[in-house]
Specification:
The complex is a heterotrimer. Chain A is an all-alpha fold. Chain A has helices spanning 13-35, 38-61, 65-69, 73-84, 91-104, 119-130, 132-135, 146-154, 168-177, 185-191, 203-219, 226-245, 253-258, 262-269, 280-300, 307-324, and strands at residues 138-139, 164-165. The radius of gyration of chain A is 21 Å and the shape is globular. The mean pLDDT of chain B is 88. Classes of the chains: A mainly alpha, B mainly alpha, C alpha/beta.
Chain lengths: 338, 189, 501
């Protein structure tokens, strides 16, 4: 190689992506424990589709296929799609979602490193707007439901009443807004079967799994502390604040952090380097903004979990955030001079 | 309804008055656009664009009489800068106005020069020194490479020499992936 | 105890210093033919002072400094100048430039040497001596040192950090020639009026630090201190070392003396002492032979020695495929080993595919930010990369492209293995070329405008003259009458005819 430096650290894009996949495993293990192995089927469908779509797009764009297909980025997108979607969505919905993520949100913008929006979140938002019914059918925890789930994924037999239950966030929202049931949050959390100790039953363990994986990623220096800490702290502070002001209407920080996509988002989705901010202060602002929007959509919006929309909205602001959060260059004074 | 019309009319009158005031109070003398265009042009003063110098060409572009792709010394980059400045589409260099060539300077062969001063009069930047019946010489650092001195010379003693790369002007090349990795040829003394 | 500061960023690659630092500096044998380029400094030209066939003495000036930024070049040994011809330089451009080819006669006869007492000589003369001795920055930048000594400062920093892996020439120099380095530092400090001298040495060089401390103690100068700085690349960068030792941050566009500080390499200080106290110009330098050698070490080679003569001393192993001049972070691959050693040659690194595996292919940037975390100048390397790659040079400058010191930390950590530094070098070169063109265009415009003005003025003057002449004639006509004027003109014409016939 003619270019200095002639030495480099033993890192690669593939290594980074594989570490992210490895960090998702604890969460997946908890998922399988509580909701059965259907999620593994979804992950398999998503991964295969993603790799095929990526290979096809690389071929069409005239890029070296083997080099880029094996860099692991398509797999990361696939696993994140599979983990944010309900595990009982039909196979064709997963395939469509992956095609949207890989073909439209990634390759049509220029491929690896060029997408302004998080591909998994683009797919999620597209699907939840297009198929709101299918995307809101989540499984009940701790039941031997693998067979009906498989049927649901691969056939059009969606006799799912036995296995389906609203998510904790969904349940909370529906009950709170129902004028008939004069429910209080304490009452809901205590009585409803959906709710576990902190968050939703089963879901809180999955979130804990993602937390463990995320902390390992931090230790491995794949991500920095800025995004997860800013996201979690902002969400916690806002939730706590409103919870203290009106405990009947607004649920507390614990719940927000351990349900829905909060943990997954804080460590794996908001930390996406390509679509997120690159400066330290910028990352904090990005994550705080995403957390704020997530809380607003969860508390006041039409969708149970607002994280995907929150992330996409903050992706829009990333260039502006980056422009105004540039750190002080060595030797220069704050009020930038060249 | 009447109120709405009145409000809109009042708004229009107020804004119109403000614009008129600004047009008079903040009027800029001269045409700043011509200066901006002239700053982009390479000042070779060669006339290849069809105008007698860079300033007249700049004025023509500003008036809309000339296209932006008529300047060979400015090259593709010059056209892109003009396109950016004026908000027009980029066009490749117009072939009838010339081709982009590497920068060269005029050199007078002193054995042949007869001291006729025709080239002195032709040079738009006075880069040739000399006088009648005295030797003429091109000041290389001031020569813009416009080639206007070459045709008038009656003994054909001026030729254009491309500038060689020196240690001071050498540029790092755009990085490309080395298909053949670079090796050192190791001699054994 | 001096308070030390930290500089941002930086990386800690394996230093690999033990192999070549174990053995003392070995003088290289005199080669039969030396190729001495006339241009060996970063700036300035050289007036060639010898011609083919001339006999030269060791240390004789063969090229004198041209202009205030020029520096001199000398014959490294006595012998005959066989030819003055253009040869390829050991420079990334592989351009050729005039060199003196000197055939050594083996006698090593010195020219006359006149030592100076630095404390009894006036500063201008001392600076002239340093200029005439051809002393340039031996840390690698080869900037003429006398130009850096043109100011008054408070603190003199001597750079013994040597942060790049594999290179140990400064380490050995400090261990073996500490008293000379200390003397040189004292001379520079006296010349620049510095009140204190800080010698920064990375803490992975305890022996060198001990030797330097002993030398400083022997001289007994209170204001001189040896300070161990934490080992971290690029602690030896001028701006970084000044920051660590004094806390001062110097941006692009400003120089050390603007802040009362200046920095010189230990090798430069050593050369200054030899030049002032012994009138020995810069004709040799210590070169590290490190990497894939059977016998790594340091050699003191005369400038102009063909590199393959030095390689023969170190014996590169059979699987060596590249020789890099410089270190692994900032050096460049030599195309050929018949090129000569020059003042900038601090290290000849032998590389093999096992010791220095080739870089994997460049992947797209994923904006991971690893580069931003290690940049010692707190730049955004990935932004600079995007804009340099898009040839959007204005934006690259907005992101402070010229503050980049080209240390290579960003490319070192990049998971996509992008040759970042080369994009910056490309962008900087293009920007400089454009600035030169702009300056030339502005000059041309001025000359064109003046020419137009001159033509107008000449026309106006001519018209005025004609008008005056016409007025004069009219007046004459009115006074004397037409016939008298015509008669006078006729007689004038007859007289001229007679004269010319």
């Amino acid at each position: 190689m003619a270019y200095a430096p002639h030495i480099s650290q033993p890192v690669s894009v593939r290594a980074v992506m594989l570490k992210v996949l490895a960090a998702l495993v604890p969460g997946i293990v908890a998922y399988v424990w509580f909701f059965g192995p259907a999620i593994l089927v979804q992950i398999a469908i998503a991964s295969l589709t993603a790799l095929a779509a990526e290979a096809l797009m690389l071929r069409l764009r005239g890029k070296p296929v083997l080099l880029f297909v094996t860099d692991g980025s398509a797999l990361v997108t696939a696993w994140l799609v599979a983990l944010t979607f309900p595990p009982i969505v039909p196979w064709w919905l997963t395939v469509t979602a992956i095609l949207i993520a890989i073909v439209i949100a990634k390759h049509l913008y220029g491929g690896l490193g060029q997408n302004p929006f998080n591909p998994a979140m683009v797919a999620f938002c597209a699907m939840i707007v297009a198929y709101p019914q299918l995307m809101s059918q989540w499984p009940r925890a701790e039941m031997n439901t693998f067979e009906p789930m498989l049927r649901a994924i691969f056939s059009s037999d969606r006799q799912l009443d036995a296995i389906v239950m609203a998510t904790p966030l969904d349940a909370l929202r529906t009950i709170l807004r129902d004028p008939e049931q004069r429910a209080t949050i304490a009452g809901i959390l205590g009585s409803h079967a959906t709710f576990g100790n902190i968050g939703g039953r089963g879901w809180e363990w999955v979130a804990a799994g993602y937390l463990v994986g995320g902390l390992w990623l931090l230790q491995q220096r794949v991500i920095t502390w800025h995004v997860p800490v800013a996201f979690a702290v902002t969400l916690a502070v806002i939730a706590t604040g409103f919870n203290i002001a009106n405990p009947e209407r607004f649920v507390g920080a614990n719940f927000h952090l351990f349900t829905g996509g909060a943990m997954l988002g804080a460590f794996f989705i908001a930390t996406d380097p390509v679509s997120g901010s690159t400066t330290p202060l910028g990352k904090i602002i990005f994550a705080a903004g995403a957390a704020l929007l997530t809380w607003i959509i969860r508390s006041f919006g039409a969708y149970p979990d607002g994280m995907a929309f929150a992330i996409l909205l903050m992706n829009l602001f990333v260039p502006l955030i980056d422009m105004h959060t540039q750190p002080r260059v060595f030797g220069h004074r704050r009020k930038s001079e060249t | 309804m009447l109120a709405a019309i009145l409000v809109m009319a009042l708004g229009a009158v107020v804004l119109g008055a403000a614009l008129g005031f600004a047009a008079v109070r903040f009027k800029v003398e001269g045409d700043p656009l011509v200066e901006k265009i002239d700053a982009i042009l390479p000042q070779t003063q060669c006339g290849q664009c069809g105008y007698p110098g860079c300033k007249p060409y700049a004025e023509a572009i500003a008036k809309g009489e000339a296209d932006i792709n008529q300047c060979p010394p400015g090259g593709e980059e010059g056209i892109r800068k003009l396109a950016d400045l004026l908000g027009r589409e980029f066009k490749p260099l117009s072939a009838e106005h010339g081709v982009e060539k590497p920068k060269s300077v005029a050199v007078i062969d002193e054995n042949l020069c007869i001291g006729c001063t025709l080239c002195l009069q032709a040079c738009p930047v006075d880069a040739i020194v000399g006088a009648a019946k005295q030797m003429h010489t091109v000041i290389a650092s001031q020569c813009t490479g416009c080639e206007l001195c070459v045709p008038p010379c009656p003994v054909n003693c001026i030729h254009m020499q491309p500038l060689p790369e020196t240690l001071d002007t050498w540029k790092w090349k755009y990085p490309v992936y080395q298909l053949q990795p670079v090796r050192t040829v190791i001699h054994h003394a | 105890m001096l308070e030390l500061f930290a500089f941002p960023g930086g990386v800690k690659p394996d230093s690999h210093k033990e192999e070549s630092a174990r053995t003392p500096i070995v003088p290289a044998p005199l080669p039969p033919l030396l190729v001495v380029p006339f241009r060996q400094s970063a700036t300035g030209g050289v007036d060639i002072r010898v011609q083919a066939g001339e006999q030269v003495l060791k240390g004789q000036c063969i090229g004198s400094a041209e202009g205030p930024f020029g520096t001199c070049v000398h014959a490294p040994t006595s012998g005959k100048v066989v030819a003055i011809e253009s040869r390829t330089l050991p420079h990334p451009s592989a351009l050729a430039a005039p060199c003196a080819i000197i055939e050594a006669d083996g006698t090593e006869t010195w020219r006359e040497r006149v030592p100076l007492d630095p404390y009894a000589t006036d500063p201008a003369q001392l600076r002239a001596r340093i200029r005439e001795a051809g002393i340039v920055g031996l840390g690698g930048a080869v900037f003429p040192s006398h130009v850096k000594m043109n100011a008054r400062i408070d603190t003199l920093v001597i750079n013994g950090a040597e942060c790049e892996p594999w290179i140990t020439c400064d380490d050995r120099l400090m261990r073996e020639r500490a008293p000379t380095i200390v003397a040189g530092a004292a001379i520079i400090a006296h010349l620049m009026g510095a009140k204190r001298i800080l010698i920064g040495i990375e803490d992975n060089k305890p022996d060198a630090a001990a030797a330097m401390r002993a030398a400083v103690a022997a001289v007994g100068q209170g204001e001189m201190q040896v300070i161990s700085v934490p080992t971290r690349y690029p602690a030896g960068g001028e701006k970084q070392l000044i920051r660590v030792l004094t806390g001062i941050e110097i941006p692009y566009g400003k120089l050390g003396p603007d802040f009362g500080v200046q920095c010189f390499n230990v090798g430069t200080a050593h050369a200054v002492a030899r030049a002032v106290l012994h009138d020995e110009p810069l004709i040799t330098r210590v070169v590290t032979l490190a990497g894939n050698y059977v016998r790594p070490g340091n050699v003191e080679a005369p400038i102009g020695t063909p590199i393959d003569a030095l390689l023969a001393l170190g014996e590169p192993k059979a699987d060596t495929d590249r020789i890099v001049m410089g270190g692994p972070m900032m050096g460049f691959v030599l195309p050929d080993t018949s090129l000569p050693v020059v003042k900038a040659t601090n290290c000849l690194l032998a590389m093999s595919p096992t010791l220095f595996p080739p870089s994997p292919p460049e992947m797209p940037c994923i904006r991971c930010g690893a580069c931003t975390r290690v940049c010692p100048m707190v730049l955004q390397p990935h932004e600079l990369y995007w804009h340099a790659r898009a040839k959007n040079f204005g934006k690259a400058q907005e992101y402070h492209l010229f503050d980049c010191i080209e240390c290579g930390c960003c490319a070192y950590v990049c998971p996509a293995h992008i040759p970042l530094v080369d994009y910056y070098r490309f962008a900087k070169a293009e920007i400089r070329a454009r600035e030169r063109e702009k300056a030339a265009a502005d000059r041309a415009r001025e000359r064109y405008e003046f020419r137009k003005f001159r033509e107008e003025r000449d026309k106006a003057e001519k018209a005025a003259r004609l008008a005056a002449k016409a007025a004069e004639t009219k007046a004459k006509l009115a006074q004397e009458g037409a016939e008298a004027v015509i008669a006078a003109a006729q007689s004038r014409a007859h007289a001229e005819e007679k004269d010319s016939s």
